[in-house]
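Hey all, sorry for the wall of text incoming. These are the two entities for the joint prediction.
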Amino acid sequence: SQQGEEDPQALSIQEGENATMNCSYKTSINNLQWYRQNSGRGLVHLILIRSNEREKHSGRLRVTLDTSKKSSSLLITASRAADTASYFCATGGSQGNLIFGKGTKLSVKP
Amino acid sequence: DAGVTQSPTHLIKTRGQHVTLRCSPISGHKSVSWYQQVLGQGPQFIFQYYEKEERGRGNFPDRFSARQFPNYSSELNVNALLLGDSALYLCASSREWTGSRETQYFGPGTRLLVL
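and here's what came out:
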């Protein structure tokens, strides 16, 4: 079963623009994680935000978490062509696993 | 330090055959998880192993099995392959079995095509 649901499903922007992706989830969480996947390869961990945090930064990435709305957003500032990838949010399952959404496919055009 | 490694990178099988996929975790990591990712979808949890014991199982049929060895490497076995088993199989490792409370590090995956 899916917990996280990313929105939009696909996003196309020009280099230098900002990209915002959203994630909604259904049940209470301890933390929420964002991963990136380049062209059907392995997932790369981007950032983990805990349930008692509202905002977290890592380089050009900014993640927000609103537990009252059960939603999170990932902002990539000053995007580059190399940011082209699929982005997934993930929350914790009952068996210690991660539950992923379907992802947002980001295309950054040079 | 080497990351999570998986072998083989690509595999083509026919329906009814059996397949074994292998994963070596990051040195010092004791937990290994397996995920299946069908094209256009997010990864789906198959198994998690910690200290050679199964700690979690996703909603997959008994044709799927796995094990973890004393060196913490792991194998995923799939019997009686179906066309629908075609997917990218991802292995992830983490230091301990703390569930989703810590980062999981993913390997590059094994792309399985069943004809």
